[in-house]
User: What shape does this take?
Amino acid sequence: SKLAASPSLGMAAQFRLLIKNDQWLILGAVIAIIMFGGIIRNSVAAYYAKYYLSGGDALISPFLTSGVIASVLAMIACTWLTRLYDKIKIFRYTQLLAFVVGGAMYFVQPNSIVLAFTFYIVVTFLTDIQLPIYWASIAESVDYGEMKTGQRVSGLAFGGILFFQKFGMGLAGGFIGIALAYLDYQPGVEQTPQALWGICLLMTIIPAILNLLTGLIMRFYLINNEYYEQIKARLQTAEE
Assistant: This one.
């Protein structure tokens, strides 16, 4: 049947439609978790290089730069991999692999600088490879919502995702401050064993658990390549 053109919807009506869009809600939860874990790992990386690896200020720049390079390579690899494999499976499996690698990084000893660099590069590559997939998925979830409800909500959908993103970032910032204070971290001095252990934990296990949670939640995300083709076909048929 032909979809009637959606009238101008008020904010409350658009919000009610978004709440019915289960796939959009999954993406909202996922970006909050991704940002929460990513901000923790990226923020603590400098402390990890300086204090845990005992590299001082001189090691911070090379360590962080290696992560940036890994992130750029991940974006390039994503373009290539999504041509060969289902993008949602790539999303899920890279998050699960990031959980494994991030968890294993916990056991890297402070004197194993090369190994620490290797783990950081690999885990950054795995966690960032899904970002282009994620942002493309938002538009697909909007199409899914239109198919499901008969009305299109795009502006609030993208704005809502940004809210979830900022929410995750804000939680991460507060969490890091509270955690470092609890661990008795003191800037610019030799850290206690407890503070070093905490820095390692914030760098490895905690974000790894969030990677695992993301991978598990994405099991409920239905809009893979094949299903999205069906959504486009149904919307096109409805418009005819």
Remarks:
- The chain is about 80% helix and 0% strand.
- The two ends are 8 Å apart (CA to CA).
